[in-house]
Structure formats: C-alpha cells, structure tokens
C-alpha cells in the first residue's frame, strides 16, 4: 500500500479511527469482510448508513485502483438500503465491474449478512484519474 493511502478512512492501517478494511481480488470481483461495532451504529444496534456507503464506495473504487494500478475516484455513487444492517455480524462487501469504456467504469456492489441476505446495494461510476503532465 502506498504511503499516500495509509491514512485512508476505509483502508488505511495508520488511521486510528478508520475501518482498516482488507481486500481480496479475483478477475470478477473485489471483496472485503467487516464486523461493525457499537462505534459504527446509528440507531441502537444498526450500522450507520454512512458507514455502509463508505464500505460500498471503497469496494467499487478500490477495485479499479487495484485492477489498473492507477488512481481512481468515484464520480457518482448510489446506495439502496434494502433492510437494516445489524452491528456485531460479519458483513461481506462484493464489488464488480459492469461496464468499462475508456476512463469510465460502471460498478455494482452488495453488502451481505453471513446468511447471504443483502442489506444494501450500490452502483457507481468510477473514473481513472487523468495523468498529470
């Protein structure tokens, strides 16, 4: 991991309040597991929607960065919350590339409970950063 990213809120190892997400990649998808604690909740016992959004954003944009080796950023993000997501259960986030043209990647993602129930879905348009110079 580049020193630039060690303070990333989602994946940075040096960020004391970050999520410290770790990832695995296949040709088809990018995955991470995370168990939310009480510090990640909104209403009693439920994961805050902003944390869910952060995880799904990271699983989509991070996939492009890892796959291409280039800086990438989210140009548009949409999240659909299907049902409340409880704290204290291991969550699995999965991101996939749906379409790719030039610098633009259209992405999809899901957040699942251990039993496979999807609690949130995301879509994003992710752009590769333009080269400086």
Descriptive report:
By secondary structure, this protein is of the alpha+beta class. The model has no long low-confidence stretch (mean pLDDT 92). The two termini are 24 Å apart. It contains one helix and six strands. It has one domain (22-128): Hotdog Thioesterase (Thiol Ester Dehydrase, Chain A). It has one helix at residues 49-68; strands at residues 23-25, 30-35, 72-81, 90-101, 104-112, 118-128. Strand 1 and strand 2 (30-35) form a beta hairpin.
Tally of separate domains: 1
| First and last CA, distance | 24 Å
Do you know the CATH topology?
A: Thiol Ester Dehydrase, Chain A
CATH class: Alpha Beta
Strand ordering within the main sheet: 1-2-4-5-6-3
What share of the residues lie within helices? Answer: 10-25%
As a whole number of angstroms, the C-alpha radius of gyration is 15 Å
- Oligomer state equals single chain
Number of strands: 6
Going by CATH, the architecture would be Roll
Categorize the overall geometry.
globular
The biggest beta sheet is recorded as:
6 strands, antiparallel
Strand residues, percent: 35-45%
Tally of individual helices: 1
- The CATH superfamily title: Hotdog Thioesterase
Mean pLDDT: 92
- String of helices and strands: EEHEEEE
Structural class: alpha+beta
Low-confidence stretches: none
